[in-house]
Amino acid sequence: MSKYTFPKTFFWGTASSGPQTEGRFDGDGKGDSIWDYWYAKEPERFFNQVGPDKASYNYKLFKEDVQLMKATGHNSFRTSIQWSRLIPNGVGEVNPEAVTFYNNYIDELITNGIEPFINLYHFDMPMFLQEKGGWLNRETVDAYVTFAKTCFELFGDRVKYWFTHNEPIVPVEGGYLYDFHYPNEKNFKHAVQVGFNETLASALAIKAYHETQDGKIGIILNLTPSYPRDENNPEDVKAAQIADVFFNRSFLDPAIYGTFPKELIAIVKELDIVPKHTKTDLEIIKKNTIDLLGINYYQPRRIKVKENHAEANPQNPMPEDYFDNYDMPGKKMNPYRGWEIYEKGIYDIMINVRDNYGNIPCYISENGMGVEGEERYVNANGQIEDDYRIEFIKDHLRYLHQAIQEGANCLGYHMWTCMDNWSWTNAYKNRYGLIAVDLDKKGKRTIKKSGYFFKTLADKNGFED
Ligand code: BGP
Question: Residues in the active site (predicted)?
């Protein structure tokens, strides 16, 4: 029998976000985000045409939710403050209903012994700012910094773990390269500008935080280890390194070292798509780096040298002009999400951070498995028996444990997610929660088998098998 015990004070919990859980209700004063706008405009882009309007009713049910977090072993929990809820137009008036809601939610968590981790931006641009260009517009950076400062002033006395962004590469990919977020552009130049402005906004928020507050501030990145098809083929290896630069190091390097990878700089120069910036911007990015790294891990990236040149269009360059994705035979898949499951990736990320990023304090800020049709696993007592999720957790934790044994500075493990929630255009297709949400019964909650497993895991600070 093997025993996996994690460090004392390890963070056990889950992550979620405001737009995916809260919902919108009469009198709450929330303004439109890009999601409210896009859903109203093109509901058919969302699975079963379900929008973000009710989400998981967390705005109404947060007290019950905190009790359920306790029942499932949480000592910490992440959510995000919706910018368009706190400041409905993105700039200007603060919404008093939002202040009351977030104060009550944060206080409820703390009273129940759950450390709140708060993220500032989770894909949810206020529509008012998007109309003026969103992250393409430098004014959005200033508006974001004001939003961040407002959050620190209002909640910083109690919240000691802050994050500037969740997965900042995703708005770049979804909104400006691959058409899965509003504004659905395919424009590499814009994509690069958006990424740069997000990085600058993050550094400015970190600066403001360190000047006035005493907790920790970081960023949450979805790291997708980039594996070459053939490790002995230098061309495959080079292609995998370029994919790593685009999708991981583009945010990881500035977050930790305050600089952009030289390979990335060379490519944007070659393509003449260097983002607009000043010398001062670069100094700000250089000086204001993170205290703590959140790592979301779902899937690796398999890469081979570019073989298919036919699709490249010089008028409209794309990252894929530099590599091909490799469909590795025999890989283990989550068929519902279409993502590969590769447990050792979590270990490889940790070792990379240990060896190449100064072993900065980090934690797993998301890891999880979205499954469609979980109703078929309901037992006679109404509980979903999601043994596949329990196996998924254990399979990843064994590798995480090994990395910690080998010196990785990992402070915790958060699952995605607590309650089943609204997954952007996938809406409620794939369920990720430790707790089921019945949308036909106004969000009625039922703890899944994995929720009870997680409670034991957290109580014992590990598991045996
Ligand atoms: C991450 C996001 C989450 C969440 C999760 C699951 O990328 O931070 O917001 O949604 O992935 O992915 P999806 O909802 O696309 O299935």
Answer: 366
Do residues 116 and 65 lie in contact, with contact meaning Cβ atoms separated by under 8 Å?
A: no
- At 312-350, the pLDDT tens digits run 788 899 999 999 999 999 999 999 999 999 999 999 999
Judged by DSSP in three states, 445 sits in: strand
Q: What is the mean pLDDT of residues 261-284?
A: 98
Q: What is the pTM of this model?
A: 0.98
Q: What is the mean pLDDT of residues 264-281?
A: 98
Q: For the segment 165-190, what is each residue's pLDDT rounded down to a tens digit?
A: 999 999 999 999 999 999 999 999 99
Residue 347 CA, ligand 1 centroid: distance in Å: 21
| Residue in 163, 164, 371, 432 to alter for ligand 1 test, most ligand atoms within 8 A of Cβ | 432
Q: From the CB of residue 465, how many other CB atoms can be counted at a distance below 10 Å?
A: 8
Pick the residue whose CA is nearest to atom 16 on ligand 1: 423
| 412: β partners | 11
Q: Domains along the chain?
A: 3-464 (3.20.20.80)
Q: Residue 5 C-alpha to ligand 1 middle, in angstroms?
A: 28
User: What is the C-alpha to C-alpha distance for residues 423 and 439, in angstroms, rounded to an integer?
Assistant: 14
Q: Which residues are the active-site residues?
A: 366
Query: Is a pLDDT exceeding 80 seen at residue 142?
Result: yes
Residues at CB less than 6 angstroms from ligand 1: 17, 20, 166-167, 170, 222, 296, 337, 366, 370, 416, 423-424, 426, 430
**What are the residues facing 62 on neighbouring strands?**
none
Residue of 340, 207, 354, 348 whose CA lies nearest to 281: 207
